[in-house]
Amino acid sequence: MYVDNASAPARKPVTVPGLRAMKAEGRRIVMLTAYDASFAAQLEAAGVDVALVGDSLGMVVQGHRSTLPVTLDQMVYHTAAVARGLSATLLVADLPFMADRGVSHALEAGARLLGEGGAAMVKIEGAAAHVLQAIEALAARAVPVCAHLGLTPQSVHKFGGFRIQGRAQDAADRVVEQALAVQAAGADLLVLEGVPTALGERVTRAVEIPVVGIGAGPHCDGQVLVCYDMLGITPGKRPKFSKDFLAGRGSVAAAIAAYADEVRSGAFPAPEHGFN
Which residues bind 3-methyl-2-oxobutanoate (predicted)? Predict the structure, then answer.
């Protein structure tokens, strides 16, 4: 059911500087994916801080085996749809596969996602040299950037599947180095996915920018899940780091509200949602 934003309690818009203030004050950031206006309105009504239009839509909406087939046009389309359902919630949109293959391509993608899509921030995966150059170029043009490290889905073939990253000491050290590098390049936010709980805590302490975890343990500054995973409607096996918040609650609105409450209280993620 579509939720009219006019019925939601008035709140101040979430801003990029506001996210950093939340980290400094120890207030956990609540992020969820959304792919259309109706789901966006549900996030807005529940007071979710950040809506992410993830290229995960390639898997959970389009039915692909990875995020790689998603195009920039599709990302702009879904971002614009989500933007229509939001008012105070901050909107982040993914740069799809190979949109960062050159600085000019990253700038074009960022311009379209903000200008046409209505996003307030773009997300980019990895910390290779060309990615750092793209972050620097976007940041220099006042485009806020969310970095994404750890298990980066666009690297699924390089990783040999969706595998937990940073378990060996040298690999963990590399993730910390990458986090510092994307921060130095100008990233304002970091999504850290699929790493051991201890590494999630280490990265969060190492950087000044907020760290939002997904399968990175409870010590991050916030949490993000794919909305279909947390509603228990994704086909197949649900990821270990997720939880079915719809079970026993009876409505999408109640499930999202419960997720937000558990993230803010620290009840989610619990130890069983993390990795060693």
Answer: 55-56, 94, 123
Directed axis angle between helix 72-83 and helix 37-46, to 10°? 50
* pLDDT tier for residue 223 given thresholds of 50, 70 and 90: very high
- Cα 10 to its chain centre, rounded Å, is 24
* pTM for the model: 0.94
Residues contributing to the annotated binding site for 3-methyl-2-oxobutanoate: 55-56, 94, 123
272 C-beta neighbours (distance < 10 Å), count: 8
Q: How far apart are CA 174 and CA 97, in angstroms?
A: 22
Classify the phi-psi angles of 59: left when phi > 0, otherwise alpha if psi is within -120 to 50, otherwise beta: alpha
What is 5-273's CATH number, 3.50.50.60, 1.10.340.30, 3.40.50.2300, 3.20.20.60? 3.20.20.60
Q: Is the pLDDT of residue 229 over 60?
A: yes
- Give the residue numbers marked as catalytic: 193
Residue 207 near residue 236, CB atoms below 8 Å: no
229 residue type, one letter: D
The pLDDT, as a whole number, for residue 9 is 55
Question: Could you tell me which residues are annotated as the binding site?
Answer: 55-56, 94, 123, 125
